[in-house]
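Bumping with the actual sequence this time:
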Amino acid sequence: MVLSRQEINVRRLLARCELMCKSKEDHLEKYLESLEDMLQGLRRQPDVSIESIKNYQKRVMNLKGALGITTSKYDEFTDPQAMREDLLGLRHRNTAQGPNLKDLDQAIRYHEDIQKNVTEEMLNFAKTLKEQSKLANKIIRKDTEVVANSTQLTEQNFSKLSVESAKLAEHSKRAWKCWMWLILAAVVIVFINMVLFMKVAKKTK
């Protein structure tokens, strides 16, 4: 079944009000008043099913209940006879007092633009966060490589130092042995000289 423009607007505004109720946006009560006016006009259209009107009215009442609103501008929907009576007696008045569909479309487009901007900002934020994460990971990888290279260089220097220390210890050991032999040779030479000196001294006497 093809929906009328007014019923399409009722559905759009009703869906928008339900989203606003979930996000607890301001001015929801004002939109509910407009929605009630539109629903009242929709009740006078013979091509709209009773079940659809009851469903719309139930959703409006749920929204008003969520806001703690207990009053209503219009009587609750009853039967088709009441609709026909309203259509015959009050069509002109309700048409004059009905909502401005142009303003309604502008309000809906305004909220859609806000949601679109919020979505774009979220996407840009996610993109920026992703780029920053990549940059941070790149910096961390560089720092890790520097630390690894420094550790490797330290190990190499330690190995070289150990080798040089071993060589120095071996050289010191050899030098100590050389000095010991020199001292021993000097003692032997002095001893021999003393013996010879004593013999020469005896012959002189």
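The tokens above came from a reply further down the thread. The first helix runs from residue 5 to 23.
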